[in-house]
Amino acid sequence: MAHNQLELLKQRRFLPFFLTQAFGAFNDNVYRQAIIGLLFYLGVSDEQRTLYTNLAPALFILPYFLFSATAGQIAEKLEKHKLIRITTAMEIAIMSLAAVGFLTQSLPVLLVALFGTGLQSTLFGPVKYSILPSVLKPEELTGGNGLVEMGTSISILAGMIFGGLIFTLAGTHGPVVAATAIVLLAITGNLVSRMIPRADAGEPDLAINWNPVPESVKIMRMTRRQPAVRNAVLGVSWFWFVGTVLTSQLPGYAEDNLGGGPTLYIFALALFSIGTGVGSMLCERLSARTVEIGLVPLGAFGMTAFMVDLYFARTGAATVAGLDVAGFVGQPGAWRVMVDLVGIGVFAGFFVVPLFALIQSRSPKNELSRVIAGMNIQNAAFIVSAAVLGVVVQRYLHWTIPQVFLGLAVANALVAIWIFTLVPEFLMRFMSWVLVRALYRLRVQGVERIPDEGAALVVCNHVSYMDALILSASIPRPVRFVMYYKIFNIPVMSWIFRTAKAIPIAGARENPEIMRRAFEEIEAALADGQIVGIFPEGALTKDGEIAKFKSGVEHILEKQPVPVIPMALRGMWTSMWSHRDSRMARMRVPRRFRAQVEVVAAAPVDGAAASAESLEAQVRALRGDAA
Fold this sequence. Notes:
By secondary structure, the protein is α/β, with parallel strands linked by helices.
């Protein structure tokens, strides 16, 4: 197991796949930029360049609408490592055709090959993201997705730069150099893909429906079965919408508002791309190696804040022209623009990486490729909508580019609020993430032992009023905690508990009706395949020691003998909201700011054989002396 995401780059189960997808993204953009270079090399008219500018993106994205449904089924049926080799072999054939187009300087051939690259990307897309849960452990999923997003962002940028320089540096040899480069890159990608280890098919017995229309409807329904997955898919599509609007405006923004040209546009794009890469890489550290969807609201509102500031940074036209990068950096206010572009990228990484990880972790393994395919159809629709909207607001509403950025910022905030209203789990996780990270330095061990699917019962010692939030921030799957009803009703915190669907409980003598309803909800939740968390001591510890586990846990397991995961909290006795030094539940200042707290999980125990006594012994052993 990799202890951090960078260690994944040293392991065969991840590195060949990472390099394969990076080579693919790099080559696609080398090819597209080289076509633009060829147009200038040939000295074609403005009308022909305009034709390419409008036709090329449509040809590339059209296969996503036509073939995503088929691609999702193929990715589900075939072994994933074999499909990647097939798609990279396709790339060799497509780039060979493109090489003929460069050598003969034939724009129609190049456009046919461009459609082919779109088809190849359509086939590769579902397996690109569905292979990660097959080769990575749950605690590696966020880091792996962060690396993939970072690699994609940097590869796109590097490909644009390299492809744009081919005709500039090679001169009359440009067509030969372009043809050679794209074929060699495709061959390299295929050779690297042959080192990807075996990754089994998700549904090898799947009967493929070759009719794309009904199958597209079917896979779109798959993306909507679970509210969290449905809105994560919507969030990813919105990320592509924002990215398309933003990056499509950068060429004009660099010229009209920053006073530069193509070089300054590439510099601005580089700032955004590097920011996205950095944000993607930071997700693992910020999430403590779990699928932390609490980062999604942070990313959404961070993107909005920096886009609003980008509007105010340059609201009018530039007073100078022809600036290179060095000349721009020396201009007043240039650093503010640069920070805004990087900031948008960083928070975009915070936004999208946890969404990918959530889709991968919450979708059934035998449907994941098709869910990704459905997401790709929706992504394509959002990209087209973004391109059309950008033209409409500028040509017909006469918005300036800074006004487009401001409108995008407002729309981003509204869409984010709408998504978080539909699925409050996003915002709840964000609030719990902020609270826990602000008060503690959290260290997590063994949470990968919690089953990815199916019902389970989590049992843990009970030290403070923050215990449920800390465990929620540590466990990648949603947990329905059973908690004392008076804690459940604490102002402000109660909203978080209700959103998390916590189950309030009372003692049999205190309120038998609340107790009866609690056990009914627990039984129903476990029957539905959910995770339920309980504190079998029945109350906060008054002396820091673990009290005797009550028989309620046995009553639960008698009706639903699901796997039990013993867990322990360490270091919480000296924290806020515990009974230390007082029998009164009152807030105190901890001994040191952000004291370290540990969450430790043991291997699942057979629920049919578990008892309150045996579970108590395991939790005591897990906690040790670290009260």
